[in-house]
Design brief:
It is elongated and about 90 Å long. The protein has 5 helices and 7 strands, in the order αβββαβαβαββα. A 5-stranded mixed beta sheet has the order 5-4-3-6-7, with helices on both faces. Strands 1-2 form a two-stranded antiparallel sheet. The chain is an alpha/beta fold. Helix 3 links the parallel strand 4 and strand 5 (137-138).
């Protein structure tokens, strides 16, 4: 005979069970609503107040002792890549960046510039010696560039049009084919 049949009150855990089940159901419904309304993981473009606007100023001394100024790159696409040598997704994307520079070397229609974030020059030099890459790398006092571009998480990459407008923001490691697709769309739109 159960305690209810015997006229005794139900044990405390039996009275609590419907409330716990209701709370769990509410949490599950809320989670499903969030998952159903968020952007898919395959959507790699992120909103940015810079989209459609002139690219922020970006100039400085490069790792190899030269200089870089984004304003001198008008007439070609510019890919501004924020990275760090300690960033695992940055390490994974690096071969794709090399592939992109190779694809555009002959046409000379794309400039890649990497901007080191919270990294020291010795580590950055080792990174490029180990992984290759012969494009301009800005290191050192680039904190203002991080703020101007609104970098949130590494790696982040901005595609600048030949006219100097920010046309795309990639979050996470890029793929050469993905960048090529965005460039092709921008060229088609410009016609």
């Amino acid at each position: 005979m159960s305690s209810v049949e015997a006229g005794l009150p139900a044990p405390p855990n039996r009275r609590l069970a419907p409330y716990v089940a209701a709370a769990v159901a509410v949490v599950v419904v809320a989670l499903l609503a969030v998952l159903a309304t968020r952007s898919p993981a395959s959507d790699r473009e992120t909103e940015s107040p810079l989209l459609g606007r002139a690219a922020p100023a970006l100039a400085g001394k490069t790792l190899n002792g030269g200089s870089f100024d984004i304003d001198n790159q008008r007439g070609k696409f510019v890919l501004v890549n924020f990275f760090a040598s300690w960033c695992q997704p940055c390490i994974i994307e690096h071969p794709e960046l090399k592939k992109l520079t190779d694809m555009h070397k002959e046409a000379n229609d794309l400039t890649l510039v990497s901007v080191a974030f919270q990294d020291d020059e010795a580590s950055i030099r080792r990174f490029f010696q180990t992984n290759g890459g012969d494009w301009p790398v800005l290191a050192g006092t680039q904190g203002s560039a991080v703020l101007e571009f609104g970098v949130f998480k590494l790696p982040e990459t901005y595609l600048i049009s030949p006219s100097g407008q920010v046309i795309y923001k990639f979050v996470g490691g890029i793929h050469a084919g993905e960048v090529e697709s965005v460039i092709a769309q921008a060229r088609e739109k410009a016609r």
